[in-house]
Amino acid sequence: MDADHLSQRLATVASYVPQGARLADIGTDHAYLPVNLAKRGVITSGVAGEVVPGPFKNAEHEIHKENLSDQITARLANGLQAIEPTDHIDTVAIAGMGGTLITQILTQDFDRLAGVQRLILQPNVGESNVRQFLMTHGFQLVTENLVSEDGHDYEILVADRQENPTQYGAEDLHFGPYLLADHSPVFVAKWQRELARTEAVLQQVESANEVPAEKVASLKAKISEIKEVLQRVGA
Ligand code: SAM
């Protein structure tokens, strides 16, 4: 992967960045996302935020190599602290991290999102935490996508600022309201795999000398939740 050839996962994230956006990409690593968008004329300006010096140097190098230093600023900073009011950032992307970390990053400097209209989030795991954050912090999910690449399933959540976002129940938070409504073949395959994995864990747990009742109950609840959803979507 490089800035001219994004992975399908990152290309999908890129596809939700509005034309003319002022983008902050938090946890940018090589800055492939903002560089790709600047080269294609999608973003007006960008901030490439990184907390680790090595990846930050990679980002600086990539931006310099592509002569984009006037348009994209690399900043070594923790999470949203990479965003300054003078950047007038309106779109934030955070991709390739766990949902808990993404939620922490968004929560701990929430005031830095003041002018932000759109969040594009791609948690590797813990997606329901991210949906919970969005609906409790004035961001309405507007679409979701599910990309299967190199043996992993990646959920991409897109949310726009809105005063009274829809309050989702447990099932929507877990499966994703848009992903569930679409129930694409990728969605069905993901949850069939997750069902098989959970059933295997249950079997293992039940064969232990001392069977932990609480764990068994939670695995069984998870299995019946997935089965119910798969049955409902005709899988
Ligand atoms: N966003 C790129 C992508 O999706 O391909 C890179 C993902 S990489 C797996 C995660 C990056 O997030 C790492 O470079 C890591 O150093 C950075 N990161 C982790 N926590 C961070 C934080 N609190 N603030 C900024 N960057 C962070």
TrEMBL record:
Pfam families tied to this protein: TrmK
Top-level taxon of the source organism: Bacteria
Matching InterPro entries: SAM-dependent_MTases_sf, TrmK
PANTHER family: TRNA (ADENINE(22)-N(1))-METHYLTRANSFERASE
The name this protein goes by in its record: tRNA (Adenine(22)-N(1))-methyltransferase
